[in-house]
Amino acid sequence: MSDTIPHLPGVYRFMDDEGTILYVGKAKDLRNRLSNYFGDKKVIPYKSRVLTKNASYIEFTIVETEHDALLMENTFIKKFQPRYNVSLKDGKSYSYIVIKNERFPRVFFTRRVFKDGSTYFGPYTSKFRQKVILDLIKKMFPLRNCTYNLTEENISKDKFKVCLEYHIKNCMGPCVGLETEASYNEKIEQIKNILKGNFAEVKAYIQRSISYHSERLEFEQAQTLLEKLEYFEDYQSKSTVVSASIKDLDVFTIRSDEKLAYVNYLKIVNGALINTDTLELEKNLDEDEHDILSYAIPNVRERYNSIAPEVATSIEVVLPADMTNTVPQRGEKWKLIELSLKNLDYFISQKKRSEANNTNKQTPAERILNTLKADLHMDRLPLHIETFDNSNIQGTDPVASCVVFKNAKPSKKDYRHFNIKTVIGPNDFASMKEIVFRRYSRMVKEEEPLPQLIIIDGGKGQLSSAAEILEELGILDKVTVVGIAKKLEEIFFPGDSIPLYINKKSESLKLIQQCRNEAHRFAITFHRNQRSKNFLKTELTEIEGIGEKTADKLLKSFGSVTGLKSKSEAEIIEVVGPVLAKKLIDYFKSKEDS
Question: Which of 264, 389, 484, 508 has the CB geometry, 3.0–4.6 Å to 519, for a possible disulfide?
Fold first, then answer.
């Protein structure tokens, strides 16, 4: 190695005979690093030998620190995209939320980013999360979605008229001057806070608005805001809050094989997990994981507009001087590293399974069930799946459902619904215990075959309740039981506080969602029928002398209370006799007079 290369930090570039950069690297010590490319060919990796063979000469730039070398290396790679450097395999199409740079800004999703002064948030890799966020914004802050040019002059000249969106309260009518620009921009600021994860500021804004209207005795407006606050708190409670002590943090982990490196990213803002992504990087040389992650982190942070001052990683990396890097070994940050690694491992295993499935000829059902089996680490194929859901409104008429899927398809003849018998009031945990016990105690007693997979619609609490009963019945080790939490679609296992995130495009997750949605639909339908039935019976049984059996008899004969009212006294006498018929006629007449 030439004596002209110093023992100093810097960036080096392998160039071909046309002056094209083939490879860019950084080094704490340029001479020592470059010497690794030359010497005994038996020691030097094959890919490195190919690089030196194709290169004509080497250029290098001395810098002050290793951090400066990192920044320069990233700049060169981004600008020149050398063929031998690690490259990000990015075939995904990302979506952003844009707040347009205009008077009375619109807020919507876009896949195209323009440098027009608009503010972009994202990217968002999950369509489900996009919909959740957009629904929250629409519910909390009515905004315009028209494309009118709302200049002061156009509004003052009455060029526009309010549309349907105004009448259904999705817009406050800024086009006709019914909402001021200042009021509208206040909402935009709160939307920005939501998208940044600054939930506390949004809550404080709503609470101030409630107090403002209450002091002026504007109770209707205050009540509307209170409902919005409850809706927002419900959304916030369903967000993945990872820590009360951690504020803003980026978490990165890495795994690699001979050809590819995989990097998982968790974005933590104010203690809540607001975004996650897994990226693939193609290795063109025998790059070290430390170097790959050092390259990936600035690129990912730029893409997600992260300004977190601290980065937690699974291995040591070199980062710019304005970032703090920690490699936690215990505590809350280590739990986040574990969560990231867990999701990274599932991503890799799912990718390999997907590749294997593409080479094997399977029926769609076999393919889906094999993927689900692998995702949930099951010992047996989940040919028989049962899913449970509770339904009650303000504690009335609590019911539950059990839907059955066989060979990845609904088996409606095996569906079951339950009236909750032992639980008073809205207690989902106790209700879940009751229905799981009733279902499987009977199956155990009658020696019926158990399902391979049980899905509980709910979070850790309902899952724990179900698992407790299965343990009591002695069958917990004979089945796989999981819970699926709403909103973020987290999969929980009994006794494991760290959720599993299955790829949103995965067929196995879609099957779990289909089971959950079908159980919810079946429970809601049964609940509505019960409420309707109980309501009709209650109205008739309010009449003196009419009990439940007589009420049922009347409803079977005339179909409904409305049908009963339309009948003559003679027709009613044929069913219940003259005494009760007169009481019914008198009751309906008193209702009409009142």
Answer: 389
